[in-house]
């Protein structure tokens, strides 16, 4: 929605009276818009502080038990959810330099035998809604590279469980995943996710949510709706 008339309050902030003000959106939806994909079965996973997925579906899906919700996208639906797992866990355990260095020693074609549920603290919301779920980050192997491999693979399994749940609830099955957020830069993680998800996984051409927010503002300004 857009409003073409600025109030006195905002005009005093330095904006002109004819400035067009458009409503915003959430970070994960902006990241989806930045990827510029609208076909059913296409999805965007945002790998930022949390792990959020958005899937274009012909069918609306809502289920508060699992934190699943839908937003209207023209004549289709944007279905998704957000896990508490994600980059914030990695930042608790590794520095940026360590993530780069250790990732070089990971073979993404080889499944990790480690089974974790990486959370920054107690509580999960999607694909399992359990406020009492405890993080599972042990046992920790001697090799930091093996440990990182296990964490990345465990996050990939959470992502796969999310898309599996959306399908079980009636959403269009995922066929292809684009990646946004800081995690999109890690090619080894992308390869792990592609193996675990069983569908093509790509780095989105535009990985920053700000780009999607700008596209939304442009559409609002040009349509004047």
Automatic annotation (TrEMBL):
Enzyme class, first EC level, given as a word: transferase
Location of region: Disordered: 104-142
Entry's Gene Ontology molecular function annotations: ATP binding; D-ribulokinase activity; D-xylulokinase activity
> Which EC number(s) are documented for this chain?
2.7.1.47
Q: Which residues form the Carbohydrate kinase FGGY C-terminal domain?
A: 71-219
Ranges annotated as spanning the membrane: none
A single GO BP term for this record reads: xylulose metabolic process
Q: Name one Pfam family in it.
A: FGGY_C
Cofactor(s) in the UniProt record:
a divalent metal cation
Q: Name one GO cellular component term.
A: cytosol
- What SUPFAM superfamilies does the database record attribute to this sequence? Actin-like ATPase domain (SSF53067)
> What keywords are annotated for this sequence in UniProt?
ATP-binding, Kinase, Nucleotide-binding, Transferase
- Basic and acidic residues bias (residue ranges): 121-142
- UniProt lists compositionally biased (Low complexity) regions at 108-120
Which reaction equations make up its catalytic activity? Answer: D-ribulose + ATP = D-ribulose 5-phosphate + ADP + H(+)
Q: Name the family the entry cites.
A: Belongs to the FGGY kinase family.
Q: PANTHER family of this UniProt entry?
A: D-RIBULOSE KINASE (PTHR10196:SF80), SUGAR KINASE (PTHR10196)
> What is this protein's record name?
D-ribulose kinase
> What species is this protein from?
Triticum urartu (Red wild einkorn)
Q: Which gene encodes it?
A: LOC125545569
């Amino acid at each position: 929605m857009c409003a073409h008339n600025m109030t006195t309050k905002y005009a005093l902030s330095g904006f002109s009276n004819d400035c067009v003000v458009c409503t915003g959106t959430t970070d994960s939806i902006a990241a989806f818009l930045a990827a510029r994909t609208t076909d059913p079965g296409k999805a965007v996973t945002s790998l930022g502080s949390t792990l959020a997925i958005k899937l274009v579906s012909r069918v609306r899906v809502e289920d508060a038990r699992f934190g699943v919700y839908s937003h209207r996208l023209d004549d289709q639906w944007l279905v998704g959810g957000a896990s508490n797992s994600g980059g914030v866990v990695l930042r608790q355990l590794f520095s940026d330099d360590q993530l780069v260095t250790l990732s070089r020693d990971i073979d993404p074609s080889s499944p990790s035998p480690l089974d974790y549920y990486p959370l920054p603290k107690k509580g999960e919301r999607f694909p399992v809604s359990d406020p009492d779920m405890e993080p599972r980050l042990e046992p920790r192997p001697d090799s930091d590279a093996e440990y990182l491999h296990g964490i990345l693979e465990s996050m990939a399994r959470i992502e796969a469980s999310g898309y599996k749940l959306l399908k079980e609830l009636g959403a269009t099955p995922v066929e292809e995943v684009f990646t946004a957020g800081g995690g999109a830069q890690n090619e080894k993680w992308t390869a792990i996710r592609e193996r675990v998800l069983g569908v093509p996984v790509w780095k989105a051409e535009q990985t920053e949510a700000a780009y999607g927010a700008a596209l939304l503002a442009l559409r609002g300004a040009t349509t004047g709706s």
